[in-house]
Amino acid sequence: MMKFRFRRQGTDPQREKIKQELFAFNKTVEHGFPHQPSALAFDPKLQLMAIGTKSGAIKVYGAPGVEFTGLHKDTTAVTQIHFLPGQGRLLSLLDDNTIHLWELVAGAPRELSSLTHMRSKIRCDFTLSPLPPLFPSATRVTVLLLLRSCDLLCIGTEGGGVYFLQLPRLSLKDNHTLLQDQVTQSLPDDYRCGKSLGPVESLQEHPQQSGKILIGYSRGLVVLWDLSTRHADQLFLGKQQLESLVWERTGNLFVSSHNDGGYSVWPVTSGNTCSHQPVTSTIPYGPFPCKAISKILWRTTQTGSPVLLYSGGMPRASYGDRHCLTIQQDKDHVTLDFTSRVIDFFTVHSTEPEKEFDDPSALVVLLEEELVVIDLQTPGWPSLPTPYLAPLHSSAITCSCHISSVPPKLWERLVNAGKAQQGRQHTHRSWPICGGKNLAPPPKQQELLLTGHEDGTVRFWDASGVALTPLYKLSTANVFHTDCDPSEDPQDPSDDPDMQQEEEWPPFRKVGCFDPYSDDPRLGIQKISLCKYSNKLVVAGTAGQVIVLGLSDERSDHLVDVSVVDLLQDREGFTWKGHDRLEPRLKPAPFPPGFQPLVLVQCLPPASVTAVALHAEWNLIAFGTSHGFGLFDYHRRNAVLARCTLHPNDSLAMEGPLSRVKSLKKSLRQSFRRIRKSRVSGKKRTITTPTSKVQEANAALAEQEEVAPVQRRIEPRSADDSLSGVVRCLCFADTFLRDGTHHGPTLWAGTNSGSVYAYALEVPGVGTGRVCERGGASESSVCVEAVLGKEIQLMHRAPVVSICVLDGRGKPLPDPYEASQDLAITPDMTNAHSVLIASEEQLKVFSLPKVSAKTKFKLTAHEGCRVRKVALVVFSSTAQEDYSEHTLVCLTNLGDMHLFNIPGLRPQVRYDCIRKEDISGIASCVFTKNGQGFYLISPSEYERFSLSAKVITEPLFSVQLRVGLNTHTHTLSLSHTHTHTHTRFPLFISLPLSILPLHHSLLSLNLLNSNQALQGFPSGLHGQTEEPPSSLSSPILDTPLDSPLSCADLTLDSTGELTVEDVRDFLTTVDEAENNLKNIKEEEGRSTGILIN
């Protein structure tokens, strides 16, 4: 028989235009808390806050919706950040001893200049005298001080020297350099003792007299230095190792903190040139040895008593492991107890010179895992809820779910339930970091992001805009008895008020919501399903618990109904070796307003739940584990179905994820068995006689098809592989299963071994066009029934990732209640339906009810990848308001997105989204119904992306800046643009060293001299080049450097459409660069501190 191969037709220009109007890949915004923060700064004039990270990122935040990110070219930790107040500029000090100056400009902020390798510059580029031989760390920068005039930067080093740089050129003023020898000469002989003063620990400018600075050395010496006369006005001979300094507002005194846990108050007088003792010296948590007070602040108030804030100082023996910050004012004393390390903190207070007092309004504390803001104006100093930067990982994220177009009533009830949870611990004052103006229009619809956590909580987030705001937290732990339950013994000593009275010092107060410790790992949430129309929620956990919850506005004390479903069905020969089930409470438990449990379904064995499905209109839930799946009627409280999917060789399925009894010998034996079978299964494999119609269709296709040269031959998987019975997906659908004339409720289940089970359901009241009413007495006694209609076995036994039923028009069936309440287009029930089954290796559409193959796409054979996530998404056109397409989106194990039309399964576009090594990012990806998605780039951050050309959630805001030292302002409107920013190249690099922003970023780094523009570059490098509309693949350069997706050699790639060949003529060699430097040094008036052309 002759076989004809048809040549693939060329691309259709009209179709390409439609695809450009439908699809476009953009990484838009990062949600959550920055991973591994290392520095903090605040601009009191612009009301902007900056956070630096250990990976070299700088993230700037203002009012909710005002946020942007900048990236250094190297993934080096940012150790300090300092704003130039009101100018939209900031300085950053990196761990590699480099200083960078940034500027915020319209559309793409840039790096003005940078000082690299300060140590080598001081030693080689300048002749400093007198200068003893220096150790490599002698000129390592320890502290920066920016003077109020913003034209001079003071730099303290480990060698005890203080250097001064002119801004914005970052050029060194060598005639102002203050070395340690100059200070030592003016010290009394008894204090000098031949000892070094140590590194410079703190630099502080006099609040009233410009040009005078406090210099604090590690040994304890503090010098008041006059920059104009280059003379020490006063010496403060401290004897305790110094940690930090802070001025009082009037400049009449300053406070020093020390490593013994104490602080001292020193007077500043004009007549006394040498002070031996402070006015007061206090160890607040003494007399026993205490830890160092690393930072201290002194703020004056109109009430007369200053507010003292300091971090550390805890007694070493008792509370040395606590992370604390103390607030003191008169008799009020609170020790804030955090669960992670304090990085830095600042106060929001009055900085106008004409004001007499500081009057702090808020305290902002940057911790290693969260940001905490304390209201200093409200008695008791409560904390403020954060509108952004909330710690998503307060407990480790285990799953997520997105809900679009949330009904207003449900949204209002969730908001009210969340406010009731805050109670008295939070204040409702306005957010103090309010810089910039959010120009983004209000969202057309409300969106929810639900995250399940290891501690058994489900958190509801407002994902409608740029700021991911917490709304409500649901806890499932109170449904069960756990090891950490409070004791019910009335004689419990922890309840004794006398014992509590003795433990009141220090006056600890737990602050923050980061809690990495779980009461019981079995509480972890694995699956979530929410019906936004009926307000029903299903959460499933690690120990086989499936909880159905309903929304209530009132507090309730009730007992939760418990039903047990045995998925093994008394099968012999299997023994569960994993963890035990959670014990439900046998007494009524209190449940606050919000989602409250209605019924608990416990699967046996108590293995982790791998799939859930909810159909609130039929009052049914389906759940699956590694042993099988079940169907439960939560209205009538009875189990409808339990099906075991175990294979006789599924021994690992009986051990559980928390088991410690896995046999190494058994694992090795199974591995060798697989290898031996794979060697002989190529040509000697026999196809068993199909028992179903789909197997007949698969066999016929296999006999007729010939593997194309571009395809990979896929070997079938062994039937006795471990964990083959794991249920991967569940699906409810109203479709044709028994015959082509009568449709009805069905349940579909797919397993890890490529098996698909389809059950026909008999639901009382369904099929006659109405759903049974809750009060119907005649139907309440009738139970739901399930009958096996089809059993399908995919030929290659690839795991089934997703199942979806399509109506007669090839469109997905609407969600429950959408069709009955006219919330969606009624599905086509006149033409034949089809079912789309996505396995890890291919996508396939079968006709219903005959289950014959219609079309397929072999993704593994063509692309060499495996499907990990699948979603059906509606893409709207940017050109035609009423045009949209349903598209199948596939995320593969390589991190790329493949888009197919349905039901034809023709490939549309492909985008590189996630780095293939980022397994956790791929596993955490969740899609929305309108073409967006989220995935974890760190344990605490979600990256938001869009596949739609129309639906993009992006920052859009304006910031008013002062131009230089002038008084007038201008407005910068900053927004996401579909362009690639240009990059300048330094002289010393023979390849373009790209310093790249995020694709949505509003900060870009350009190595650019502020006084001289780079000459000789093509015009395309000076402006922004538009991204070609036909470009359907996202460049890898969109990956942020501070995310786990970045790689070390990312900076050697070209930016956007620029390549090395494009700019080769404009690059210089190292020799040329050295010659250019020599010429620069000879030029009069040119600073040698600038290494860039």
TrEMBL record:
**The keyword Repeat belongs to this UniProt entry's keyword annotation:** yes
A GO BP entry is:
Golgi to plasma membrane transport
Keyword line: Exocytosis, Repeat, WD repeat
- Gene3D superfamilies attached here? YVTN repeat-like/Quinoprotein amine dehydrogenase
**Repeat found in the keyword field:** yes
Domain Lethal giant larvae homologue: start-end pairs: 282-382
**Feature: compositional bias, Acidic residues:** 485-503
Q: Report the InterPro entries cross-referenced here.
A: Lethal2_giant, LLGL2, WD40/YVTN_repeat-like_dom_sf, WD40_repeat_CS, WD40_repeat_dom_sf, WD40_rpt
Chain segments carrying region Disordered: 482-503, 1018-1037
Protein's name according to its UniProt entry: LLGL scribble cell polarity complex component 1
| Organism listed in the record | Lates calcarifer (Barramundi)
What's the source species' lineage? Answer: Eukaryota, Metazoa, Chordata, Craniata, Vertebrata
Q: Which gene encodes it?
A: LLGL1
